[in-house]
Specification:
With 212 residues, the chain is an all-alpha fold. Helix 3 packs across helix 4, helix 4 crosses helix 10 and helix 8 crosses helix 9.
């Protein structure tokens, strides 16, 4: 049986990082910092958005985005197209859509409600329209966002969160923006209007670089 040859002892010198590599560490850290911040800045409010979108609503849109993953500027665009940021004289449309974000009662409470059908106006009692338990029972999209025990389309927080809930459920949280907007209102013109404002409410590359 052949004997295994003895291994020679090898001594290793401890390597020290070169001064150049040490100097490059802060550089790479800064690169990562600016890359991350550039990602976050892609949805910053544009100059047009600052003039158009009421500032008191922006924290609500962003809170809804954080919860449902729907871009805040898309929610702002829906609010703009639906009720001109709640400035319309009546928040009830001729066909029966209600509130800041114009929900049909059957969509808000749930289409399985026994009174729902056709266009979705239904004949839902007022006390059921805002009851979270009733909404959960019938599979609606209404949300009690401010925790006051009711889900009310005439309360701005509830309305925006409900819209985010609906859009997320129809694909907006997964990037299917056009599909979700079309589900909100089956009109290509509506989709174009919403996407137009959504795009204009955030900075474009030229604005970020200070160009006109």
């Amino acid at each position: 049986m052949a004997k295994r040859p003895k291994k020679k002892k090898t001594t290793y010198k401890k390597k020290h990082a070169s001064p150049l590599k040490i100097l490059l560490i802060p550089f790479f850290i800064l690169m990562i910092y600016f890359a991350v911040n550039d990602i976050h800045n892609t949805n910053k409010l544009s100059l047009f958005g600052k003039e158009e979108v009421p500032s008191q609503y922006i924290p609500i849109y962003k809170a809804a985005e954080e919860k449902y993953g729907v871009p805040w500027n898309l929610l702002a665009a829906h609010h703009r197209v639906e009720t001109k940021f709640s400035t319309m004289k009546s928040l009830i449309s001729p066909v029966g859509a209600e509130g800041h974000m114009q929900f049909m009662p059957c969509t808000f409470v749930g289409w399985s409600h026994p009174t729902c059908g056709e266009l979705g106006k239904g004949d839902i009692p007022d006390d059921q329209k805002t009851d979270p338990d009733i909404i959960e029972k019938y599979g609606g999209y209404g949300v009690d966002a401010n925790g006051d025990g009711v889900a009310d389309p005439f309360q701005i927080e509830d309305a925006v969160f409900s819209a985010a809930n609906y859009l997320a459920s129809n694909g907006a949280a997964n990037g299917e923006i056009e599909q979700a907007v079309f589900a909100y209102n089956h009109s290509t013109e509506y989709v174009e209007d919403v996407l137009y404002f959504a795009e204009r409410y955030i900075e474009n590359p030229d604005e970020r670089e200070g160009k006109k």
